[in-house]
Automatic annotation (TrEMBL), chain A:
TM stretches of this protein: none
Segments forming domain DNA replication complex GINS protein SLD5 C-terminal: 169-226
Pfam families according to UniProt: Sld5, SLD5_C
Protein's name in the database: DNA replication complex GINS protein SLD5
Gene3D superfamilies: 1.20.58.1030
Cellular compartment(s): Nucleus
GO BP term, example: double-strand break repair via break-induced replication
GO cellular component, one term: GINS complex
Function of the protein: The GINS complex plays an essential role in the initiation of DNA replication.
From TrEMBL, chain B:
Name assigned to this protein: GINS subunit domain-containing protein
Localisation: Nucleus
GO CC, one annotated term: GINS complex
Residue ranges of domain GINS subunit in the record: 68-134
Annotated GO biological process: DNA strand elongation involved in mitotic DNA replication
Superkingdom as given in the UniProt entry: Eukaryota
Amino acid sequence: MASSDAEGLSIPIDDYETLLSTTDVELLKRAWRNEKAAPDILRFETDLIGRIREQIQLMEETAEEKSAAGVDPLSLSLYQMDLDRAQFLLRSYLRIRIQKIEKFVFHIAKTEELWNKLSREEKNFARRCTEDLKQHLEDSVLSKLPENYQSFQKQSVISEEDDMIPEAQLDTFVVCRSKEYLTGIQLEDGPVDDRSMLFEMEPGVLYFICYKSIKALVESGKIDLL
Amino acid sequence: MYGRKACQLVKELASGEKGQLTPFNSDLFEQVVAECTQHHLELQALIRKMQEEGLDVQTTRNAEHHGALIHHLSLVRNKRCLMAYVYNRAETIQSLLWKIGHVLPQEIEEKLCHPEVEYFKKHSAALKSYMSKMQLDLTVDMVPPKDPYIQVRVLDDIGDGIVLSDDKTANFARHSMHFLKRTDAEQFISRGLMEELTG
């Protein structure tokens, strides 16, 4: 469908596709897909979400105006559907992130790199979450244990590191696709002998790969998760 | 045998259906806590004995040391089991918020222990405060939308005068059928007060 539209507008297909893939809705879709597939939390798309919220508000206002002006119901319903889809993407994106925060809140709260990926509101939520869960664990279990065993982060005072904190599994496998030719990807799984081999990626081809190996490339936006 | 009760506790968790809660087993839970206290007493007794004999607690490797080590490890294991029990239940409680909303039905509340009910309330408040900051209700729109309107049947008397998002009020008498905005209907569906009519 994209190609026939493009002919009508006499824009070269390549340009048209890049144009299409850089609209905010497409960007949100991409962010949403990545967030959904990534085992750990990604950087919050502050600017994008701000723009999307403005657009949604604008669309809502237009929808109201249209319904007040008595535009024909079909076009209004189509408009409403489009709005609903955008709303769903936004809600789902925020929801996935909140659920990741719920799951790994202790780990996120103590790892600065992850903490800085949250939005201001998410940080507030995470702070309350940590506080509440900690309180709950203390009330239910920790306060009843002997003194040296009361930390929620450590098994006992002799543990050297925090060994009671659940964190995201980064060595799971994800499906991904690169937009450009990438080379020199270091594999971080499999037998040790193979790890020195560098892996390359063709654009547009689907790969099934260990998330750890491509984490940095996902964060820099070179690779999309599916 | 040390650690058996804690193991039972975790098994109870593992054998339950995912996302479902079983009643909080406070009886077994307290027994495991008591076992922890007992381990700690014996651990201290053994260390005291070593100190009385003038041995260096850090380096001596005698029978008392190994005994104490067993007690320490059993205690740590029990702690992990207790924490796993409470933590996993807390995760289920979090997921309940998404599934059934901010009001706990009576039959679920009965299965929770007191701190868990408190936790549910606090977590619900935290989530609500996030959503009001974002001015967005995240508990609706759980599935991708197909049609903005859906056909529903009311299963229970919800009453009249319910204000919908387009500022109209509706009378949701039992068994009546309505054509509603999906976002309006979802909250009632998740509480089991309405069902979607398909086909």
